[in-house]
Each structure stands twice: as C-alpha cells, then as structure tokens.
Amino acid sequence: MSRAKTLQSLFKRYRRPGDLVFAWFILALSVFLLTQIFQQTDFKNSGKLVAQPRFWPAVSLIGMTGFAALHLFGSALSERIEGRWKEVLLWGSAFEYAGWFIAYAMSVPIIGYLPATLIVAVALTLRAGFRSRTAFISAASAALFIVLLFKTFLQVKLPSGQIYEALPDGLRQIMLNYF
Amino acid sequence: MENLIAGAVMLARWDVLVALLVGSIGGVIIGAIPGVGAAVAIAILLPATFSLDPIVGLTMLLGIYGSSMYGGAIPAVLINTPGTAVNALTSYDGYPMTQRGEATRAVSLAYSASFWGGIFGILCLILLSPVLALIAPMFGSREIFLAAVLGIILVILAHRGQIFAAGMLAMFGIFLQTVGLDPVTYTHRYTFGFSFLTSGIDLIVVVLGLFALSQSFFLLTAPNSSPDAKPVTGRLTAGFKEVFKHKRVATVASGLGVVLGMIPGTGEFTAQFMSYTYAQKTSKNPDDFGKGSPEGLIASEAANNAVPPAAMIPLLALGIPGEALTAMMLSVFYVHNVIPGPQLFQNNIDLVYGLYLALILLNIIVVAFLLVSTNLMTKVIRIPTRFLGVMILILALVGVYSLRNSLTDCMIASGFGVLGLVLKRLNLPIVPIILGMVLGGIMEVKLRSAMPRLKTPLDMIDRPISFIIFVMIVLVLTLHIRTLIKEYRAHQKDEDHDIHETQQG
Fold it and tell me: Is residue B419 domain-shared with residue B467, that is, in the same domain?
C-alpha cells in the first residue's frame, strides 16, 4: 500500500445531503459581508496598510469568499446525494430547540434558576419523546443536581428569580443566594 | 529541580487536588459517553472556572482534556462507536477483538497503551522544558505572528478532503474576531449599528454555541438510541504486560503523538493515523490490522494520549493553541492575567511544572479509577442520546448565561448552535472557526506590534527563528502541492461516500 493511497483512503471526503445548499448560503453570506466593507470599516489616511482597521476584515472576507466559491464549485461538480431538502428541513427543526434555550434563559430572571431548570428538564424530556416515570424522575433529579452543583456549591453567577421576592424573609434569602 | 519542587508545592493544596480528581474522573465519564466529548464539557465548565484560582481551574480542565480519551476507548472497543472522535482508529481493531470474545483484553490494552502514551508525552515535556525556556524568549512579535500564520495553514491543510471548507471556516473565524471596536483606532467594524456588537463576539459564547448547543441540537433532532455495552469480566491489569511486549510500537506511537501534538493544527487524528501506518508496516502480521490486531490498538491509543501534554507546548511557550481544547484553555489564562508565551517560562515556571505534575497525577488517577469501574462506564454508555441532548442544553445555559448574564449572548450562542448542527450534519469541521478566532486575534495584534521595527517586508524574516518558521511555511505548502499532484496521478474513483471509513461495518 503506497503512502499516498493510505492517506487518501483514510481522509476520503464524506459528503452528506445538503452540501450544495450550505455552499450557496455561505458564499452568499461572504459576498454580502464583503460588499459591506466600505460602510462597515474605516480607512485612516495616515498609517500603514497592515495597521488599517479595514485590513483584517478584508483579508478574512476575501479569503472566505475565495474558499466558499471553491467549495461551491466542488459541491456542484460532485454527484448529487438524495435527500437534500429533507436535510434542510431537519436543520430548520433545530430552531425549535434554540427557541427552548432562549425561553429557558428568559425565564431564569423571572421564576428563578431552580424552578426554571426543573420545568425545562421535565418539559424537554417530554418533548424528546420520553413517557416513562423513570425518565421524568431522572430528568428532575439531574436538574436538581445541576442547580446544586453550579448555583449552590460553585456559586456561579446566575440571576436570582423575581418570584423569590414574594417568599417569607428567611426562605427568600436562601433562595436568592443558593437557588 | 527547584522548579519541579515549586510546582509540586503549588499542587499540594486540597482545592487543586479536588479539581484534579473531579476533572480526571469527570473526563473519563464524559469521554465514555458517545456524543458528549471533552470539548462540550470544557466549553460548559469554562465560565465556572473563571472564579477559581488559575491553577485550580486549569487542573480541572486539564483533567478533562487528558482523561477523556481513556474513557472514549471504552465505547470504541465495546460497541464500535468512538466516545471521542480521536478514538476512531481504536474501534478499528478494538471492536473485532470484542467480537471474538476478547473485550477485556482489548479494554485493558487500550488503558495500558494510553497510560504509556500519556506518561511518555509528559516526560518529553519535562525534558524539553529547559530547551523551551531557552528558545521561547527568542520569539518576538514577528515570530509569533509567523507561527500563528503557520498554525492557520496547518489547520486548513490538516482537513484533507475538506480543505476548501476548512479554509472558508477558518477565514470566517478570523472575520468574527474583527467584529466590534478596533482596539487601536476605536472605529466600528461590522457592528451594523448594533450596540451589542460593539464589544465584539465573545469567543466563549461561540465555543458554547458551536460545541455544546450544537451537540444538544444534534442529539435532539436525531432518532433516539441507547447503545448496549456488555460488561467486561476478568483482570484489566494484564494489558500492561502485553504493551511492554510491544514497547517499540508503543514508544514510536507516543513519539509521533508528541511531535504531531506540538505542531498546531495536526493533532490526535494525524498522530494516530501515522502511528497506525507505522505499526502496520513494521508488523510481522500486517494482515491482522483492522481485524483485531493488538499492535494496531496500542499504536492508536498510545499516540492519541501522548498528544495532550505535547499540545501544551505551543500553548505555554508561545501562547498559540494548536486545537480547540487548548484554545479554550487559553481563555482561562487570559481571564487570570497569566499570559502564556515566552514570559511565562521566565516568570511563572512553577505554574508550568505544576501543570506537568498534574498531568502525571491525572494519568495515575484515571488508570486506577478505570481498573475498578470499567463496568460502571458500560452503564453510563447506555444513557439515551435524546436525554443527553436535554441535559447538554440545560448545562449549556450555565456556561453562556453565567458569563455576563446576557440574553443577547444566549441568542448568539443559539445561532452558533444551529450553525454547528449544520456543520456536524454535513461532516464539516468546527475547529477551524475557533482557531481562526484565536489565531486571527494573535496575528492582528502581533503584526501591528511588529510593524514599527520593519522597514521592508523582508525584515520580517531577518531573524533566525522567523526565517526558520518562514521556511517551514514554504515547505508545508510545497509538500501539500506535491502530495496533491501525486494523488491526482494515482487518481482513484468513488472518493465520496457517506460514512467515514473507520465507522463502516
């Protein structure tokens, strides 16, 4: 076995459906960003070229556009793999979970880290298709463990819930500081 | 010697030892779960370590980094699914051994070879330190700039078969770090009038999006699976004797791991591949490779475990990370105002030796832990993948939100999470974006600070080290073009296929 052959076989390009869509998207993005370079960056009359604020955005975007064009070229010339739009729809479905994440982040300063984490863990476990009692108990226990580890023990800086203000004096302070 | 003692004193604290223990054992568990990996764990824990002492935070992250590959070998051997990407070649010979009823032998060999590689790597690092301390001060702005350029080129070229995509993503990373206020002229760059973009795009937010959130989205959008790993029975210490019988393969593989680990951008996979090829070519039974050869397993595991200590060399000596995990660690140094680079070897050599000793301890802890708890790990492997997705999403919030309690950061991280998912689905690399961001920042700062001393472009390479790096850049590019021509002449059809070769059958 020649070395070149071994190298080839171990580093074969393994494309997936949707490659062409991504190649077009990234080329369009880089061309758009490059067209904005005069509006979005400055050029100072004094100073060397490499010290200009525009220099590195220009280098990176020209490079990105060049590579994106070559990548698109490679994808367009490759054999088509079935299932392109099905794959794109799957990418789109990730936005639902991004929405879950943002909603979770938004709820923490309102209802507090512990209740928000418990609710999201159980609800997302349900959304992920689990229906057994074991799954829900595991999700709630793991959520509780995460809160105890990060907020109670490691004192990671997370906002306290507004809802805690309504609690009685002694409990309020504990909840505000540790949960 | 006194530096080594100072390093040991630095480690002799209960909080450092707890961090090391948590990091090492946590790393093994995380490595053993297919679909999590050290990058996800380090990304999540990164902001949590900012409030700790530098040595505590770094030993914890180092623990995860160094031990995840030990854990990753378990599912690679038992269920043909590497726990971490770098254990891919381990499954090549490990799984056939499991199929013929030699699971215990395979797991034991993987641990022993990993230990050999890990310790070899650290010893090389300790022996090289005096040389590094001597050479590192010779690196000025232009040398570090050229080393960063070499790093970017190597990162792109290391992604063979995906060079255009890797180049495009590395350039995207360089672009991302330019967004915000220019640090010298205070002019806006690509802020589009949004005030939240003025302070730039935070590396940690991008890292969490690309590694943690994308993995969560990836698992949640894919069908659920719960791999069934059978428990192993018998003595797990037998592998040490067998590795000693193959000490030549183990040592050469570890050596290749050290050399390739030091070179930015090449990393574990290239080291594994080179060692595997070497082991096959020099073996008395080359036909057994891929069918359950102990030598193949040893070569693969020894090589990838020698990489983490070696990868610390460019990070500590020059402040240049070679891959995503060391790039993340760089941010811990920066947060604590410990700037890796030539100065670190002059002013904080005790920290450097402390980290070396932590690496030795970590290898001992991990092997001791695995010898008694491998069967517990086989249970961990069975956690359903979609449930893991839920947990990663919850953990990712700790990382992103605790950074500066910003909802905008969460939205940006979500955006990068979706991008990361697309890249993972397409089998395109994520690492070039992160290294582009880090090395791009280094290139911009170092080129600017080198400028006042340069009258002509040739002054850039008029010092010995800068000239050597320049020659290396030219050599790397020339060799790449030569390989391309060679491969074109030996043209093979059907290059594209859906699954990576190491994952087939």
Answer: no
